[in-house]
Amino acid sequence: MTERVAVPAQRSHRHHWRRDVVELAALFCAVAVADGIANLVVHGPRGPILLVASAVALLVTAAFHTWWARRHSHAPPPTSTAPTDPRSAPVADAADAAAGTAPGAAADIELATTLWRMRTTVRDEPGSLAAICTALARSGVDILTLQTHPLPEGGTVDEFLLRAPQQLPSAGIIRAIAGAGGHSTWIERADAHDLVDTPTRVLGLAIRTALDAAELPLALRQLLGRCTIHSIPATTLSGRPNAGANAPVEGVLEATVMKLRDPSGGAITIERPHLPFTPTEFARARALVELDARLGPRVPRSQDVLTLPEGNEITVRRADGSDLSAARAMHDRCSERTLSLRYHGPVADADRYLGHLLSPRFGRTLAATTASGKLVALGHLLWDGDETEVALLIEDDWQRRGIGTELLGRLIGMAVEAGCDSVYAVTQASNTGMVAAMRGLGLPLDYQIEEGTLVITARLDTTPVISRLPYELPGESRALPRTQH
Fold first, then answer.
1. Average pLDDT, stretch 121-139?
2. Taking Cα atoms as reference points, which of 402, 404, 403 lies closest to residue 390?
3. Is residue 168 domain-resident?
4. What is the pLDDT of residues 62-117, one digit of tens each?
5. What's the pLDDT score for residue 430?
6. Same-domain check for residues 318 and 416
7. What is the pLDDT of residue 257?
8. Coil, helix or strand at residue 314
9. In terms of DSSP bridges, do strands 303-307 and 267-271 run parallel, antiparallel, or are they unpaired?
10. Are residues 283 and 318 in the same domain?
């Protein structure tokens, strides 16, 4: 049912007395003109001729008006595809005129641009940031993101993510910033990953740290950019206190060096010689370390059950300090040759390395266990400053069965997920099993031999590899896949 609503007619405008006076005056003028024409026609010598000429002129004017009105009443509608909103047309025309192009041509022009990350220090006073932004705008540089880092001694470090014309070099941007009052300017190329805003990136790093204790060094590196991170244990391998492991609870910030107390014992040092740390970055790093301390030891519970060619099943899972006794028992079952190929030193000291290797602070460890729960193999991915090392130890009775290849492939996948450009393995030239496993990866390899020690480096920057042990939240359960090898 449709409701009919009566719309009241619009009220006519009220007549004003001044309008009435004007109309009355016009009427009197018309009467006076008519009387003058009548007297001219009646009493003039050529009155009839003037009257006929006036009638002809009126007829011609009426005919012309009729023709003009009919022509425009039947004109075809305009075929323009311009927007129906009349307010948008002048704006578009003005923009096209200012750009020096025809309407619609601006959308066909794509200028090549480059992403830059830049930091500069400015005075902490009104108008300093505005001068920097104005200088960038004059150079045709677009500001995508902006962060400010106040300094305790005064001044502010402004961090920008910029999109600049490709033909504008970094030196040109630095000159523009210097002319606007910025100093100590640092700039480097950025990529699409830098388009993620800082709060989102920090939350993602916090989630990774909460799921896996081994993620803390990686999270700090991704938070702070190109830097070198060292975890200093509280004691040396001989059991003596480590002098460099002392750090106050609140941490220490010294320009390009940051030192934080490690929740698992010892200290974490972070160095970035090319760019000093700001108090804001120090506070963010300390917050991640505090989160790690509050959550305590943790390791992802994911695991896979694999079937070996002879039919035996093994389980591959993450290992940590709780596997220390099982790892020592495996050491006791290994031959001296196997231990010497793995640790490159006295066999009697092999047990001392296990506490370091199984700590999630120094890397990630994979364990291979039998159906009865016996530990038969360990694979390590170790953070070594800016580099990453891979290492394998497989019990003698379980060698040459494909376990080493399986563990190595998973370790490489973890290295790719962690953002590592390469990994290296230190072994001996006589260790044909490790050499064959590295070759089986199908990655570009570099070999370096020094005094019988072979260092094999695999480059990962061109080969995407995905780990088959995903992270899981506490309390989640997951079916164990079975993979035939």
1. 90
2. 404
3. yes
4. 777 676 666 555 444 444 433 334 333 333 343 344 444 444 444 444 568 899 99
5. 81
6. yes
7. 92
8. strand
9. unpaired
10. no
CA 383/CA 31 separation, integer angstroms: 109
Q: What is the pLDDT of residue 262?
A: 85
**Token pair of 206, please?**
């916090």
* Among 276, 295, 314, residue at a domain's last position: 295
Q: What is the predicted pLDDT for the residue at 79?
A: 42
- Rounded distance, CA 111 to CA 108, Å? 10
Cα dihedral across residues 310, 311, 316, 319: positive or negative: negative
Complete DSSP assignment for 386-427: TEEEEEEEE-GGGTTSSHHHHHHHHHHHHHHHTT-SEEEEEE
- What residue numbers bound the domain in which 385 lies? 303-484
Q: Which of 71-75, 329-333, 431-435 has the highest mean pLDDT?
A: 329-333
pLDDT of amino acid 368: 93
Look at strands 482-484 and 303-307 and give their pairing.
parallel
**Is residue 473 located within the same domain as residue 451?**
yes
Tell me if 406 is assigned to some domain.
yes
Q: Which of 28-37, 440-449, 457-466 has the lowest mean pLDDT?
A: 457-466
Residue 257's H or E segment, with its range, is: strand 257-261
Residue whose tokens read 């995905």: 466
Strand ranges, E, within 111-256: 113-122, 142-150, 156-165, 183-189, 228-232, 252-254
Domain at 154, CATH number: 3.30.70.260
Write out the two tokens for 54.
């006036």
Q: What is the pLDDT of residue 87?
A: 37
Burial of 331 (0-12, 13-18, 19+ CB in 10 A): buried
Domain co-membership, 260 together with 359: no
Q: Would the pTM count as exceeding 0.85?
A: no
Count of domains observed in the chain: 3
Radius of gyration, CA atoms only, the chain: 41
Q: Is 64 helix (H, G, I), strand (E, B) or coil?
A: helix
- Judge whether 113 and 191 are in contact, CB under 8 Å: no
Alpha helices in 74-197 (DSSP H): 88-99, 128-138, 170-179
Q: How do beta strands 453-459 and 267-271 pair?
A: unpaired
Round to whole Å and give the CA distance between 362 and 289.
Answer: 15
**SS3 state of residue 271:** strand
